[in-house]
Amino acid sequence: MQADSELVRLAQSGDQLAFEALVVKYQRRIARHVARYVPLASDVEDVVQEVFIRAFRGLHSFRGDSAFYTWLYRIATNAALTFLRRAPFEEQMDDSDEEGSNSFEPGVSDHETPERILMASQIADAVRQGLARMQPELVDALTLFEVEGKSYSDIAQMFDVPVGTVRSRIFRAREALAKRLQPVLAPQRDRRW
Amino acid sequence: MSQKISLLLDSQLDADDVARVLNDLSADDALRDRFTIYALVGDTLRGVNVPDDGFSTRIFARLRREGVKVEDGYNPLA
């Protein structure tokens, strides 16, 4: 099955929820990419919003010749470079000159707040602690898929297990980490999808 | 159902299942939250561990507010 093909097909037919699922899936990766070109965090959010608006409007032009993420990535590059060409150079600079002001901060309308820095740290800690207490085969399945980009069938072959076992291991790993993350994320529940 | 959410995130569902799971997602806040957290887990493992902070919902609000539609002939790469 081609990655995202069914969600994309539904979104192309006007199913906004399918598109929203794609946004949730890729928003951080696209924001990180945009932040390589756009220095100010507040501008990163504007550009990323523009990327997803353009992508939604242009869904019919996506033919599936590449992965959906690759297509989004190209839209993001164009949008970021367009932003750089249009904005006067001085306005792209951060007047406050605070350290880290050009770091990746999707969803932040101004500079990073101490609360968000703390939450990002708590998220990383919760995931690390969750991984440390997990069975190694669950850790391997999840990290091979999410970090190394291996497919379910690749992982099944590597460990000589059925694909169904890989499905189950990845799910169980995510579920264990989700349970650790829920208390950390609870304050923001009303602002999530 | 959460396992189906995990499989949806990984593009491992067939067409019928995707439609069914989306239908469930539309009616269940807790399932949508699970999907969001699963996505965050992957991003955290890749080193992008930032809270959502309403970022995606602001995009969805803008899509609705501006009445953005899928347009024939619009090329976002042009």
**Pairing-aware structural class of the strands and helices of chain B?**
mainly alpha
Inertia-based shape of chain A: globular
Radius of gyration of chain A: 19 Å
* Straight-line distance between termini of chain A: 26 Å
β-strand amount of chain A:
under 5%
| Helix count, DSSP H or I runs of 4 or more residues of chain B | 4
Describe this structure in words.
The complex is a heterodimer of chains A (193) and B (78). Chain A is mainly alpha-helical. Chain A has two domains: 1-111, Rna Polymerase Sigma Factor, Chain: A (Orthogonal Bundle); 113-193, Arc Repressor Mutant, subunit A. Helices cover 67% and strands 0% of the residues of chain A. In chain A, helix 1 packs across helix 2 (16-35) and helix 3 (41-57) crosses helix 4 (68-86). Chain A is globular. The two termini of chain A are 26 Å apart. Residues 95-110 of chain A have low confidence and may be disordered. Chain B is mainly alpha-helical. Chain B has one domain. In chain B, 63% of the residues lie in helices and 0% in strands. Chain B contains four helices and no strands. Chain B has helices at 2-9, 15-27, 29-45, 55-65. In chain B, helix 1 (2-9) packs across helix 3 and helix 2 (15-27) packs across helix 3 (29-45). Chain B is globular, with a radius of gyration of 15 Å. The relative contact order of chain B is 0.10. The model of chain B has no long low-confidence stretch (mean pLDDT 91). Classes of the chains: A mainly alpha (193), B mainly alpha (78). At the A-B interface, helix 1, helix 2, helix 3, helix 4 and helix 6 of A face helix 1, helix 2, helix 3 and helix 4 of B.
Keywords:
heterodimer; A: 193 residues; mainly alpha; Rna Polymerase Sigma Factor, Chain: A; Arc Repressor Mutant, subunit A; 2 domains; B: 78 residues; 4 helices; 63% helix; globular
